[in-house]
Amino acid sequence: MSHAHDPRHAPERYCSQCGGRLDAATPPRCTACGRKCWQDPKVAACCIVEREGRLLLLRRGIEPSIGLWTLPGGYVDRGETVHGAAARETLEETGLAVQPGALVGVYSYPGVPVAVVVYAARSEAGEARALDETLEVRWVAPDELPWGELAFPSTGHALEDYLGSRERRAPVR
Ligand SMILES: [Zn+2]
């Protein structure tokens, strides 16, 4: 996920303590009370769910990147575990109960306020369906992945890492 146009990532403009206007410094300083207002990054958590050799992708129903394909996942709430958020978001978006397992990778980019944590997850049973903020869900074979229609750079990077590591683990013939 990269979220340059996500309104939740717009810089804060007002002091969280007194409501005064913030200046343009890093970190911004309140022009009324002088408080430094640090702006923390956000953390998102996603799952690569595999079943019978296919990977679960979903088509986004909201901006940014509406209509493009991504992994199930979303923002980690404060106080929530990262793997717990990956499971919760996958359940909310697809109805599938999953167990996030091995870490695929952590994806962050200069100028982007979100760090994305991606887990490999398995789901043995249950139908995936398009729920919250999702237009469509699909189980996609690795050689049919829509590389040109992925929602975010991290989506592609995580899929590359997942497929690459799976190939490296494959037995030598
Ligand atoms: Zn202030």
What does this structure look like?
By secondary structure, the chain is of the alpha+beta class. The protein has 2 domains: 30 residues, no CATH class; 128 residues, Alpha-Beta Complex (Nucleoside Triphosphate Pyrophosphohydrolase). The chain has 2 helices and 7 strands, in the order E-E-E-E-H-E-E-E-H. Strands 1, 2, 3, 4, 5, 6 and 7 form a 7-stranded mixed beta sheet that branches. Strand 2 and strand 3 form a beta hairpin. It is elongated and about 60 Å long. The two termini are 36 Å apart. The structure holds zinc ion. Zinc ion binds next to loops.
Tags for this model:
Nucleoside Triphosphate Pyrophosphohydrolase, seven-stranded mixed beta sheet, binds zinc ion, 173 residues, 7 strands, 17% helix, alpha+beta
Topology diagram in text:
Elements: E1 42-51, E2 54-60, E3 69-70, E4 73-75, H1 82-94, E5 99-107, E6 114-122, E7 134-140, H2 153-169
Parallel strand pairs: 1-6
Antiparallel strand pairs: 1-2, 1-4, 2-3, 2-7, 5-6
The protein binds zinc ion (ZN).
- In CATH, the architecture of the largest domain is Alpha-Beta Complex
Q: Which overall shape is indicated by the principal axes computed on the Cα atoms?
A: elongated
How far apart the termini lie comes to 36 Å
Q: Taking Cα atoms only, what radius of gyration do you get, to the nearest Å?
A: 18 Å
The SS-based structural class is alpha+beta
> How many discrete structural domains?
2
> Which sequence of SSEs, written as H and E, runs from N to C?
EEEEHEEEH
Count of individual beta strands: 7
The low-confidence runs, each spanning 5 or more residues with pLDDT under 50, are none
Task: Identify the bound ligands.
Answer: zinc ion
Major sheet size, sense and barrel closure: 7 strands, mixed
Percentage of residues in helical conformation: 10-25%
Could you state the CATH homologous superfamily of the largest domain? Nucleoside Triphosphate Pyrophosphohydrolase
Number of helices: 2
- Oligomer description: single chain
- Give the amount of beta strand, in percent: 25-35%
Mean pLDDT equals 90
Q: What is the CATH class name of the largest domain?
A: Alpha Beta
User: Per CATH, what is the topology of the largest domain?
Assistant: Nucleoside Triphosphate Pyrophosphohydrolase
